[in-house]
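Internal tracking record. Fields below are filled automatically when a chain is submitted to the structure queue. Please do not edit lines marked as system-generated. If the sequence contains nonstandard residues, flag them in the REMARKS field before resubmitting.
Queue: standard
Priority: normal
Entity type: single polypeptide chain
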Amino acid sequence: MAGLAGCAHPAQQALAPEPPAPVGHVYQSLVPVPPAPKWVHIKPDDQEKIQVAFNVIGLKSALMVGALSCGQQNQYDAFMRAFQPHILADQHVMDAYFRRIGGQTKEDQFVTLLANNQSVGGLDQGKIFCLNNEAEFERVASFKTPDELDSFVTDQSPTPVAAAVVDPTPAPVKKTKKPIKHTSTTSTSEKSAASPTHS
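SYSTEM-GENERATED OUTPUT FOLLOWS
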């Protein structure tokens, strides 16, 4: 019996898996611009400027969602201090575009849906979301000029993530017993994400 006991295999120690490495962008940085009605003519040069503005505001929204979800408010505040004039100018571009195509209500719906979809995309990433967002903050903190920021959100746009795609023409939300993914029940926190603490 003693010999058999000596041959018993020792209990194997469970090794905790290493956390996955950050993969970069935590959102779709190329934000689909809602199409203008037929009677609104947008010049090609203006269209490019509008697209960049939407991308920058999309980055701001994504970083805010990450800051609220991961306790990274200090990093978000530093980002806003560094680029606030540029972000404010792009916000004015987006405001002006929505005034031409539909007004404030349509813009509010768009901004809320954008933050909702970015939040859903973060939830889908699980534990790696905050690591990704930290890496994103470190990247934008290295930029010295607004042009670098514009390049980051436009020329370096990643492959879109399905959960983070923004519907360019959101339909009115109908009441239904089944939950709709992009209008999840976390609307209170999402609305706070869509309401920046900085102008």
